[in-house]
């Protein structure tokens, strides 16, 4: 019923495919969804959309929906086969001050430009975990590509994440936004993916918990990228000590 659909959407489950991508245990954790109701939801989703095998040819046709977003660098585009790909996660990692955030900012602009193979450009969502997002930098990049600064900024949705839990919760809002405006958003940026996990999980004693939570987030990001055909771009800072902190 309508109330159950609303409960699912509040939890970031907005499509039939989203139901199929969610475990039974996760569905039962949604307030107001009993085990019996969960089974009915799963059964209805299976009837509406078969999740069985397809031929490689059929999958090849489905992959034609993928697009690539240019990075602003011809050499990097060559390495990536044309740019960062939709329906997948692209991670850039390196030491402090090696250009990871700069590339994130450039992609916020280049994602709005028409590209190869009929790519029309679109909006961007930027999740900032380290307070490194700078609209003024985007204005400078917009000038490079001859874009109207205000129109470009209006196409970027920004949110500051303060804890690893908050970062995860924002993905439900992201999924809902992608569902509300299908095909409009082309890129999700998280800069950076690990910063808040390093703060919230301290030392080697909590390393296993941290890795499990991180794996859950990456799984959620992959499902979102496939469900809504968007590119996901994440940054990560290298560290020699997995139990250490970044100050």
TrEMBL record:
Keywords: ATP-binding, DNA-binding, Nucleotide-binding. InterPro entries: DNA_repair_Rad51/TF_NusA_a-hlx (IPR010995), P-loop_NTPase (IPR027417), Rad51_C (IPR013632), RecA_ATP-bd (IPR020588). Transmembrane segments: none annotated. One of its GO terms (molecular function) is double-stranded DNA binding. The keyword Repeat does not apply. Gene3D superfamilies: 5' to 3' exonuclease, C-terminal subdomain, P-loop containing nucleotide triphosphate hydrolases. GO terms for biological process: chromosome organization involved in meiotic cell cycle; DNA recombinase assembly; DNA strand invasion; mitotic recombination; reciprocal meiotic recombination. The keyword Nucleotide-binding applies. GO terms for cellular component: condensed nuclear chromosome. This is Meiotic recombination DMC1 LIM15 homolog. The lineage of its organism: Eukaryota, Metazoa, Cnidaria, Anthozoa, Octocorallia.
